[in-house]
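seq:
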Amino acid sequence: MQLLSILIDVVGPVVLIALVGFAWARRGAPFDPRFVSMMVTTVGTPSLVIDNLTHSGLKLSMLATIALACVLCHATALAAGWLFLKAMRQSVVVYLPALAFPNSGNMGLPLGLFAFGEAGLAFAIAFYATASLMQFTVGQSIAAGGMNPGALLRMPLVWAITVAIALAVAGVQLPSIADRAIHILGGLMVPLMLLSLGYSLASLKTSSLKRATLFSLARLLGGFAIGWLVTSLLGLEGAARGVVVMQSSMPSAVFNYMFAERYGNKPEEVAGLVVLSTLLSILFLPVFLSTLI
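struct:
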């Protein structure tokens, strides 16, 4: 009964909103993924980060701990994924980003809010902000075969985090007109990301079902185990523990497919991993969340 409640109350809204995007794509209705992606990365995400980190009431030390947990989760996933792929004799360039970088944005943020409330959303944003920096540096460099440090400084998310930390340290509040505008713009992100996720899944073509299933299980179950390990090492409890484990357990991020497409790394293979891990997460997430709530 508890699993059913979690499925309906927490996972249900995420799936329903994503299904709207999926149905929209199937109907062939107008949708500009590029525009949505730009809005999310340059406006929605930075606004949500500033809004929530400046109003969360959480200590910077706690948010820093979540960021550290995120780094440890990804570092462990990268190491474990590399060993797994070497043992399977599969391409590290093609599959490692998809195994190591979870969907902590499209699915992780709304689940953090629905499962753990406003505090959970703040923790989820701290995790997501750190994960985004890692994905657009380490993850993209793996896919591209090299790193571009200058790209990091051009990310609006980097400046949003800097502003949020500076405001929190100085104890300064934004003018009410700016504060309210940022709050409204931040509200764009979650629905846009979920609609985009559904649209993207409808647009992807998959292949190699057996391998995609195996790698999807590795992403979900491995991420869950890594999340528990990291939170135990850091002594995290309550919502902080729940959010870190949940974020670490997310399916493969859609950005992994976008990078594979951009750099010609068998995008159809990565698409299969993204699609299947997302579908399987509907079954696994209620079970994972039942151990955390």
